[in-house]
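wait is this the right file?? whatever heres the structure
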């Protein structure tokens, strides 16, 4: 009888309960519901699904302009399309350099190449994974014609300092795909540059499956962006013609209908994220070797995901070991976020672009193509330490507590081993 009890005890100790967490990849972690269905029904009943003739896209653009405090907002087909549209609106010359970051989705980088420009990578802050005023300044050359600043995980880059330090006339574009309603120094991100790009892809703060938005206060930038999305055809203007090389990046009334319904839930969804992440941060405060992302005074993060830093000197195996152990508990995390810097991907490493031409890399200065690891110490340090924890608007306090407890348990186990 005693032996049986001891065995049962060991079995109970070794058993780890699998968590069931809401996921932004399905309905469990999304705020989709009757409001979206009602708007979709109205669009389908109208028979007008094209954005050039429907009412939903016009409404969406007005609402986004109001929400962001910009004079202009333009809806398009994806976040990648939004970045491409913003880069195209700058009307760069082939071979011009655009300073950007290598810790981002490829959809924020290939549009630069498609416009014949050269991505010039700035190093990242090892604590945030984002570019800084210092790293942007270090990347500038006499070929620099624009800067793209990416806000990661719902936190703000130091875009105010970057904008202030840029030479007069050098345009700044903000990539806010992960940063709806995020604030820097009390001001909404997306309001510091000539234009800003947002995404409504499946896992973003609001979703239409795929979708993008471009905002601006600059009339000329906004007009060129709108014309670019429409194959360079200026709808509604006198004597229209296809003015320059451009694509069809229009959204649809179906996407815009969902976006309009989602916008009504954005503030509440962000508040829910902030509340549960605050609880999560408090629960992790005493876990050794795990650092919660700092938020500067005056900033307000909206927590697309939570990027923890795991110190491998204090937690054996670092973020990969933590992620592997968390997976057995039902907590899927992403060590490194991206597995390697973007410039280490084949499109950059092997310059795979148009046929065998290598264009526009053939126009680049050798220094712009020098991706030596020693030039990017912050980038590699950050990727070696970051552990990205998924989050969404359906998380409740119990979810935050459970994920924090799982991380604490895993760290303790790894430190004891």
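ok assuming it is, sequence goes like this
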């Amino acid at each position: 009888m005693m032996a049986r009890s001891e065995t049962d005890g060991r079995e109970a100790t070794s058993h780890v309960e699998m968590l069931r967490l809401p996921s932004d990849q399905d309905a469990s972690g999304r705020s989709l519901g009757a409001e979206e269905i009602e708007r979709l029904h109205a669009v389908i009943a109208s028979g007008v699904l094209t954005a050039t003739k429907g009412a939903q896209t016009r409404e969406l653009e007005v609402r986004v302009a109001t929400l962001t405090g910009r004079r202009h907002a333009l809806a398009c087909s994806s976040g990648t399309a939004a970045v491409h549209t913003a880069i195209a609106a700058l009307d760069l010359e082939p071979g011009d350099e655009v300073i950007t970051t290598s810790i981002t989705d490829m959809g924020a980088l290939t549009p630069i190449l498609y416009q014949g420009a050269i991505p010039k990578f700035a190093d990242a802050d090892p604590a945030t994974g984002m570019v800084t005023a210092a790293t942007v300044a270090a990347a500038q050359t006499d070929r620099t014609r624009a800067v793209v600043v990416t806000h990661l995980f719902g936190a703000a880059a130091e875009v105010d300092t970057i904008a202030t330090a840029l030479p007069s006339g050098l345009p700044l574009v903000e990539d806010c795909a992960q940063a709806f309603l995020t604030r820097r120094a009390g001001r909404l991100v997306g309001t510091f540059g000539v234009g800003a790009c947002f995404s409504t892809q499946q896992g973003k703060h609001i979703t239409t499956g795929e979708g993008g938005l471009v905002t601006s206060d600059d009339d000329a930038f906004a007009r060129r962006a709108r014309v670019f999305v429409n194959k360079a055809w200026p709808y509604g203007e006198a004597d229209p013609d296809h003015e320059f090389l451009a694509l069809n990046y229009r959204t649809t009334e179906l996407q815009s209908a969902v976006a309009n319904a989602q916008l009504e839930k954005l503030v509440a969804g962000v508040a829910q994220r902030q509340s549960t992440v605050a609880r999560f941060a408090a629960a992790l405060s005493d876990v050794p070797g795990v650092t919660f992302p700092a938020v500067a005074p005056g900033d307000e993060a909206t927590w697309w995901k939570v990027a923890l830093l795991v110190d491998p000197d204090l937690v054996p195996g670092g973020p990969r070991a933590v992620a592997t152990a968390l997976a057995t508990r039902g907590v899927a995390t992403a060590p490194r976020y991206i597995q390697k810097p973007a410039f280490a991907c084949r499109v950059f490493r092997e310059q795979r672009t148009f046929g065998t031409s290598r264009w526009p890399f053939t126009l680049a200065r050798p220094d712009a193509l020098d991706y030596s690891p020693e030039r990017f110490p912050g980038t590699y340090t950050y990727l070696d330490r970051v552990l990205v924890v998924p989050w969404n608007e359906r998380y409740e306090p119990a979810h935050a507590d459970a994920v924090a407890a799982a991380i604490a348990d895993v760290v303790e186990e790894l430190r004891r081993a």
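The chain has 13 helices and 13 strands. so i think its the right one actually
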